[in-house]
Structures are given as structure tokens and as C-alpha cells.
Design goal:
The chain has helices spanning 2-5, 24-33, 55-70, 157-161, 211-219, 221-227, 249-257; strands spanning 40-43, 47-50, 76-86, 89-98, 105-115, 128-132, 138-141, 146-154, 166-174, 183-190. By secondary structure, it is an alpha+beta fold. Strands 5, 6, 7, 9 and 10 form a five-stranded antiparallel beta sheet that branches. A three-stranded antiparallel beta sheet has the order 3-4-8, with no helix packed on it. A two-stranded antiparallel ribbon has the order 1-2. The longest helix has 16 residues, at 55-70.
Length: 259
């Protein structure tokens, strides 16, 4: 009900504990929040609500906690892009910023891959955590500053079988060793994800590093495929006509120059 009522600004992360769907990232978050009963929901890292009672009363408790946190202003902006760089690898890039009039922040950035409607049993599984970044991503930002962080995720067979249900979430949280810890803001994207046109070296960016690979795919596609075996040839089909040829040159230049 929460996801249906607030589809644009409410994103839950379902963490499994003590079953075959448990992940190391989820276990770490369980320890961070010191969960003692399930289901327990933490809103923005500072408000905990245990879903006791009827479904309707649990929903009302969750909604009240959510609306209270939603009313709290933030001076942090989180932006995300994501694209395939191989058939089973998605590259995310997250930009975290503090507004010029805000306050300095010490942030732990979390980036997580979810799979919605999985596992099939129980049927209420939504946005199950599949994996998260295991290395510390610590960011210190002063007002007016930004930082970009890339992270690659290899999708498992379950995620590959449900590409439209794959989601990525990034959230900027107060750097602490345990809860409560404010989540200043978050961003998420839903699948299916695809290769980026113009990213002919499949590093997740369209930049001058793609010029030589683009020339190679035009003049010797077999050599290009051998050099970039995980890339899809449609990365060179800039104008989207289904063919990689000289008709893609001007669109490729436009991508590079932003014109």
C-alpha cells in the first residue's frame, strides 16, 4: 500500500535475515539497526516501526512515520545514472551534492541492487536486496560541493531473468557506526537497463575515449568485437536505424560535443 500510494518518493528495501535469501550487505544493515523483531521498518534511518497488529493498523503506523520524515527538509541532492557495460553488468554513477546554503556533511554512501517481486514465495516480497557495495564509500562535502562515485554490479541469474524488476538505490546517510543515522536523500532507477549509445568502449561513459573504438567499429567491426567482447554493437548505432555506418558519425559527434 505504501508503494502504491507514494510511487514517486517512497522506496523500500527488503532485507532477509536467517534464510537462504540473506546477503552480507543485509546482515550488516541488520547489525547496524540492531533489529530484534520482524517485520521492522526504519524510515530515513532514524524512525523505527514494528509492523504489529492488523495489516491496516501496520500500514497506518508506517504511513504516519513516513509522512513525518517526508516533511523534514534536506540540503543534500543525490542523482543516479545506470547503463549496461556487459550483458550481465550494470554500471551506476552517483552524484552527491550539498546545496550552497547548506551545512557540511560527513556521509556514508550506500549503493544497493534490488530485485522486485522476488522470491516468488512469500508473495509479498518487494524490492529484495540482492547485493550492495561492500567497500566503505565515505564522502565529506562542504556547502556547494559535489562528488561523483561509480559502482559496477554483476547481475545474478535471477536478476537476468527479471530485467524489468531490477532496481538500483543510492542513499546518502550520516556517517555513524550504528543507528539512528539520518538518511539525507536518496535516488533510484528501475530496469530494464541497456547499453548506452555512443559508449563503444563500454566503460559507462560517452567521452573522447570512445573516438578510436567508434572508428574501429565503423571500419572493422570484427576487430572491434574482439577488442570489446562484452560490448553490444548497438552502442555504435547512434542514430537508431539498426545499422552501424557512416550515418552515425554526425550523431556521435553531437553526443561528444553536447550539441
Amino acid at each position: 500500500m505504501m508503494m502504491s500510494n507514494y510511487p514517486n518518493d517512497f522506496i523500500p528495501l527488503e532485507v532477509h535475515i536467517g534464510d537462504s535469501y540473506e546477503t552480507s550487505w543485509g546482515s550488516n544493515r541488520n547489525t547496524f539497526y540492531a533489529i530484534t523483531g520482524t517485520p521492522t521498518v526504519w524510515f530515513d534511518g532514524v524512525t523505527s516501526v514494528v509492523g504489529a497488529g492488523s495489516a491496516q493498523s501496520a500500514f497506518q503506523n508506517y504511513q504516519a512515520a513516513y509522512l513525518a520524515r517526508k516533511a523534514v527538509p534536506t540540503d543534500v541532492l543525490v542523482e543516479m545514472t545506470a547503463c549496461k557495460i556487459a550483458a550481465n553488468v550494470v554500471r551506476t554513477k552517483i552524484k552527491v551534492s550539498v546545496e550552497p546554503g547548506g551545512t557540511a556533511k560527513s556521509i556514508r554512501l550506500q549503493i544497493v541492487q534490488l530485485l522486485d517481486h522476488w522470491p516468488a514465495s512469500p508473495t509479498y516480497s518487494r524490492n529484495t536486496v540482492m547485493q550492495g557495495t561492500v567497500w566503505p564509500i565515505y564522502i565529506t562535502l562542504n556547502p556547494g560541493e559535489s562528488r561523483e562515485v561509480p559502482a559496477n554490479f554483476t547481475l545474478d541469474s535471477n536478476s537476468m531473468a527479471q530485467p524489468a524488476d531490477v532496481k538500483f538505490v543510492a542513499f546518502a546517510q550520516l556517517r555513524k557506526s550504528n543507528a539512528p543515522a539520518d538518511i539525507y536523500n536518496a535516488a533510484w532507477l528501475g530496469g530494464p537497463f541497456d547499453f548506452r549509445r555512443g559508449d563503444v568502449n563500454c566503460d559507462g561513459e560517452v567521452d573522447f575515449g570512445d573516438i578510436n573504438p567508434f572508428v574501429l567499429i565503423l571500419t572493422n567491426p570484427a576487430a572491434w568485437q574482439a577488442q570489446y567482447p562484452t560490448c553490444d554493437p548497438k552502442t555504435g548505432d547512434i542514430n537508431g536505424d539498426g545499422i552501424v555506418d557512416f550515418g552515425d558519425i554526425n550523431p556521435f559527434v553531437s553526443l561528444l560535443t553536447g550539441s
